[in-house]
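QA checklist item 7 of 12: single-chain prediction sanity check.
[x] sequence parsed
[x] length recorded as 182
[x] structure emitted
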Amino acid sequence: MFKKAMLIAAISMAATPAFSSEDVDQKRFSVGIASFATAVSYDTYYGTEDERFGGFALFGTAAVNDNVAFRLTYANQSYEDDSNLDLVAVEGSLLAGTGLASTGFKAYGSVGFFSETLEYSGYSDEYDFSGLMLGGGIGYNWNPVSLEFWIHFRDSSDYEDFAGSGIDATAASGGLGLSARF
């Protein structure tokens, strides 16, 4: 019994430097730019209609540890068929997964909120959409940079209110981002 306890203690002490070196390799903050898109699909009486917006986003991530992080994203997008129709979005997310602060592969699920404004250049009318979102992402962290892809499925009740009664909507946003880690 004593020999087993000594063996376990020796293995634990030998592994201690490996665990402590992980903290040294972790970079808890990143700031980046992404190709960002939002798609809304409306099921109408006549079939399905899609609205697609695309543009760029700026995002920042702060990792509490390797498993939990917070992200804030600002996106400016244009409608694919009319560049005068703009969609400006802000998203805030809580990420939970693995590899969020360390070098290597990362994967996460997310829960958060979105708030966006739809406006047409030259007109004063604006339409606001907001709600909760669920999603996830995958990526890879190198020492100085990170590359990742994420997608969020949004609460579509504001889109349905905008479209009118009897119309069901589905909404999603996503990005492919490159960020600097520090």
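[x] summary fact logged: Strands lie at 29-44, 47-63, 68-79, 82-98, 104-120, 126-141, 145-154, 168-181.
[ ] second reviewer sign-off
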